[in-house]
Specification:
mainly alpha; Growth Hormone, Chain: A
Length: 533
């Protein structure tokens, strides 16, 4: 890291909890933005006359840009200053949020969302790398990461609630405009409380690696997102996926042979890093897909408003608030492996319960199930994140944080796509031939739960009622199967944690990276490896 005087170090240490508060505010704006847009989509369709494909791009453009730039943004923050990267991200994100709120065409909004993704890519990984470089005591850092993980979940859960209120009273543009004052407050707090750390000598510029990673992730995510709509065998899907894999393989080859890589692949030899990354990828794949399906269930089958559907998601945030800060203390007693397996088991149980109409149609049952899932996430994400970040030298915290975030985004996108495909195929198969429906309406009646309900409302009478009953039955059957798939994914994560995730930290020699060896502090050396129970 850059030279730090004793007075600077003392000041940073004294302000560390204010620093954490500032970082939590920064990730809240990212978490809210990830979900707040969903409730505004119907209004955007009406006001901007957005087509179905344009609506998908409005949602997906941000996700793709955000995910494919995380590694590069984290590396640049390590090299040129983490606070600078964070403040740049906040300014950029706030500016383009304001522009998005004033968009008059779908194209303008899609472009603004792409630009917001650039800002988000600098904000999210930088918060965790600053946290790692601010909290040097291992136990305090674990507690801080627990708070960070809990707050990141709060932002995601607040999105639908805040969005519903804003759209109802101020229109769809307000879901973007609300980001501006949050970014301004966060900028002021960054200036006052966030230290400016960097590791210029240990964060080499790697433009070839950056280009390969950006192209690979962008193409892969685009293909995965398009899969459910255009068919997994179509050229529009397999072409981007194939090219993305080629670029990512090229990225791995380049990084393995580059003497000063952006991402040193030897990090993955440490099971504390690789097993934790695999666990979080699988967990987010299951949870993103399950949450996407649950919002449809609440609105289409139970008839909840967007605001009430958002309210049903909030117990997840409450559970994360409860579980995440307590997880580090439990880890100290029982070890990372056992705590993560416990959290994943809670997620698996709650996911299985989510597939039951009898449980989820009950307000109390639905709330309790979501609360249990949130607690499971708290006991999973906080220890896994600490395992990833604690396994790396603090000089490479930005890249480590970016890997942590990239795996989450990629896993979530793949989970939504795969589980969406399973659900859609099962739903259409269970709808049958619908011979009682006029031939002109059968295709729409079988397409999705949304089009089925719309067709039933248009037909009316006994035919409409019969179609409505068929749609409800097909949805529930498909939901049970899809949640079964999600449970299997979580159980695979349980196996990975049991088989590969180490349990307790031990003193170990520093990794033999030439540059890290010269600058690693004694605090880094304590946390290189863990031992299994």
């Amino acid at each position: 890291m850059g030279a730090t005087t004793a007075a600077d170090a003392e000041r940073i240490h004294a302000r560390r909890w204010w620093t954490l508060l500032t970082l939590c505010l920064c990730i809240t704006v990212i978490g809210v933005d990830n979900t707040i847009l969903n409730v505004a989509l119907p209004s955007i369709v009406r006001d901007l006359n957005a087509s179905g494909s344009e609506l998908e791009l409005i949602v997906d453009a941000y996700t793709i840009v955000f995910a494919c730039l995380l590694l590069s943004a984290g590396s640049l923050g390590d090299r040129y200053g983490r606070r600078r990267a964070l403040m740049l991200g906040l300014v950029w994100f706030g500016l383009w949020s304001a522009i998005a709120s004033m968009a008059r065409t779908p194209t303008e909004l899609i472009a603004a969302r792409c630009m917001m993704g650039i800002g988000g890519a600098f904000i999210f990984p930088t918060t965790l790398s600053i946290l790692t470089n601010t909290f040097h005591d291992a136990r305090e850092r674990a507690q801080a990461i627990g708070v960070w993980a809990g707050v990141s979940g709060v932002g995601i859960a607040l999105g639908p609630l805040v969005g519903g209120l804003l759209v109802e009273h101020f229109g769809w543009g307000s879901v973007f405009l609300v980001n501006v004052p949050i970014c301004i407050v966060a900028l002021v707090m960054c200036t006052a409380f966030v230290p400016d750390t960097s590791a210029r000598e240990d964060s080499p510029l790697d433009p070839i690696g950056a280009v390969l990673s950006i192209l690979g992730l962008a193409l892969l995510l685009y293909g995965v997102i398009e899969g459910p709509d255009h068919g997994w065998g179509s050229a529009r899907v397999m072409g981007p996926i194939g090219l993305g894999v080629v670029f990512l393989v090229g990225f791995g080859f380049w990084e393995a042979h580059n003497p000063r890589p952006m991402l040193d692949l030897r990090f993955f030899k440490n099971p504390r890093f690789s097993a934790a990354s695999a666990t979080i990828t699988l967990t987010f794949a299951a949870s993103f897909g399950a949450t996407f399906l649950m919002t449809q269930y609440f609105q289409f089958l139970l008839g909840y408003s967007p605001l009430k559907a958002g309210l049903m998601i909030t117990p997840v945030a409450v559970g994360m608030i409860v579980g995440s800060p307590f997880a580090p203390g439990v880890v100290n007693r029982f070890g990372t492996k056992r705590v993560v397996m416990f959290g994943l088991t809670l997620i698996a149980v709650s996911t299985a319960c989510s597939g039951s109409d009898a449980i989820m149609s009950s307000f109390g049952g639905g709330m309790l199930t979501r609360l249990l899932m949130g607690i499971g996430f708290g006991f999973t994400t906080a220890p896994v994140t600490e395992s990833i970040m604690g396994s790396l030298p603090r000089t490479r915290a930005g890249v480590g944080s970016a890997v942590n975030d990239t795996t989450r985004q990629t896993g979530g996108a793949v989970g939504v796509a795969v589980m969406g495909t399973v659900f859609a195929a099962t739903y259409r198969a269970n709808m049958g031939q619908l011979l009682f429906v006029p031939a002109a309406s059968r295709a729409a009646a079988r397409e999705s739960i949304g089009t089925s309900l719309a067709t039933a409302g248009h037909l009316g009478g006994a035919t409409g009622q019969q179609l409505l009953a068929e749609a409800h039955a097909a949805f529930l059957t498909a939901m049970r199967l899809t949640y079964g798939v999600a449970v299997c994914i979580v159980l695979i994560a349980v196996f990975v944690a049991w088989r590969f995730l180490p349990a307790r930290a031990v003193v170990a020699p520093a990794p033999s990276y030439e540059r890290e060896a010269a600058v690693a502090t004694s605090a880094d050396l304590v946390e290189g490896l863990e031992i299994a129970d």
